[in-house]
Amino acid sequence: MTAAPLLPRPRRIRFSARDGLPLSAAEWGEPASARTPLLGLPGICRTALDYQALAARHMGERRVVALDYPGHGESARAEDAARYRPEAVLRDVLDAMAALHLHRAVVVGTSFGGLMAMGIAVARPAALAAVALNDIGPRIEPEGIGFIRDFVSRDPAFLTLEDAADHLRRTLPPLGIADAAGWRRLAELTYARGEDRRWHPRWDTRIAEVVLGDDALPELWPYFGALAHVPVLLVWGQASRILSAGTVERMRRMRPDMALVSLPGVGHAPVLADPEAAAPLDAFLRGVP
Fold first, then answer.
1. C-alpha to C-alpha distances, 54 to 27, 85, 88, 206, 227, nearest whole angstrom
2. How would residue 32 be classed by pLDDT, with cut points 50, 70 and 90?
3. Helix, strand or coil for residue 199?
4. Which among 47, 82, 109, 201 is placed 20 to 30 Å from 259, CA to CA?
5. What's the pLDDT tens digit per position in 239-261?
């Protein structure tokens, strides 16, 4: 078996939200780079570490930053779960962009991170140079919400990392991960070893109550429309239960110039490391000065 390539470790940046909650971001590359920086916004139960592979491909050309939202990764957990409401997280993202001198950025947003990118387009449109949406659109299919809510709300407290990897392999939709090493790597990005020596989620499971409490989430077509001033690429897993073919088609009608990467047999959300997704995504990003 070929060993997985070593991915670059990020520099950690610590800062505070406006209410004092400690937050963390990961950074790769040179802050003084002349090219527009790249900002990675992860999914609802994901962290900044998901962007290591993307950073490895682009850190020689531009600064790459990825955020840990409140309650995720190395950012602090909130005492009140209401602190995780999307509007509060969007405010954190906007404040983080200011604090980290990301006054204009290329945003790669996976799932919830893509919704945050649309929110930036409404609240601070000049902060966006281009946006890549990973398996997310203005409409989230109700059939997928229940699965994600169940996944996000559970802490299986695995005894071993192999148990965690096996759980992900059996539970998640097809993601194009071909071997045990790939699932183990995903498990390492999803769970962290606690003081009890068990493997726990890298997020606060109360997030499910606040963000995914309703089976029908509001549609955000005006937010997608707010991206009209920037280039947009959509990565779509055709087996996704979050982003439907009908929603993709409507997005294409609204944005005929939107680049589309369709991944047959892949569910929510593509990991963006396989050549089928990575090559067109990288080409899109390198087209932004």
1. 12, 27, 27, 29, 23
2. confident
3. strand
4. 47
5. 999 999 999 999 999 999 999 99
Pairing type for strands 105-110 and 64-68 reads unpaired
Residue 63: which domain range? 11-143+218-286
Q: Are 233 and 280 in contact (CB under 8 A)?
A: yes
Quote the pTM value: 0.95
> Do the domain assignments include residue 240?
yes
Taking the C-alpha atoms of residue 116 and residue 70, their distance in angstroms, rounded to an integer, is: 14
Residues 6+ positions from 285 with CB-CB distance below 8 Å: 38, 58, 106, 108, 130, 132
Asked whether residue 229 is domain-assigned, the answer is yes
CATH number of the domain encompassing residue 29: 3.40.50.1820
- State both tokens at 71: 């309650």
Report if residue 209 sits inside a domain. no
Alpha helices in 214-288 (DSSP H): 221-225, 245-254, 275-286
Question: How many domains is the chain partitioned into structurally?
Answer: 1
Q: How far apart are CA 96 and CA 19, in angstroms?
A: 13
Q: How far apart are the first and last CA of the chain?
A: 38
**Is 168 within the bounds of a domain?**
no
